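Lecture notes, unit on protein representations.

Consider one protein chain, 247 amino acids long.
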Amino acid sequence: MSSDTTKVLGMPRPRGPEDAHRLAIEPIDTSFSFKNKAYAALKNVIVSMDIYRSRADIRLDERQLAQDFGISRTPVREAMAQLEREGFVRSVPRRGVYVVRKTKKEVIELITAWAALESMAARLITEKSASDSEIASLRQMFATFEDGQLRAHLDEYSEVNIEFHQSIIRMSGNGVLIDLAENLFTHMRMIRRKTIVEKDRADKSIRDHMNIIEALEAHDTARAETLVRDHALGLADHVAKYADYLD
């Protein structure tokens, strides 16, 4: 990583176009663990960033972050250590801590693992882990879409898309599966936000989602499981073919 393509998050500087990547930090509430609060705040900001739209490295400045949070550097350092264990940041000796961008291979592996978890969730849903009313609630997410046509901005649909897949996982009712999927999908949501605007994927995504809902409503286990798995693996194929920005 070259110094001329590095953005430093938390470092004071003049305002400019690159400030879209500036961490929006508020003082931390002292009623909860400083480390947990710092961890949650940093993770939320990292996940919300469009890290795949720019090739510039994004560095976290520990000292400035501590000042922004209004706490000492120790809980910030602990929070970043936890984020590193979870694969969101990496520490480079004598250089600092940087936000991680997954490689194409790593993203495809994440999606493949997600396909296995979500397809099992679909199976569990059809085997009565979710009520008919819960399954029907999935349709309400698409209230802004009519006759398969997109009636919302892509940014809005991207969030609906993410919530749809998280809901399927939650509706499985399997605590272990839910825990396994949580961190995995946090990584995936960043790449989903980027890919949903590519190659008419939003239109195809809507059609796939409606077919999945119909299979879940019919409690057609084999079809629901297959549709969910193929939908996820379709994203993996798309990344393999078109996501050259991950190389």
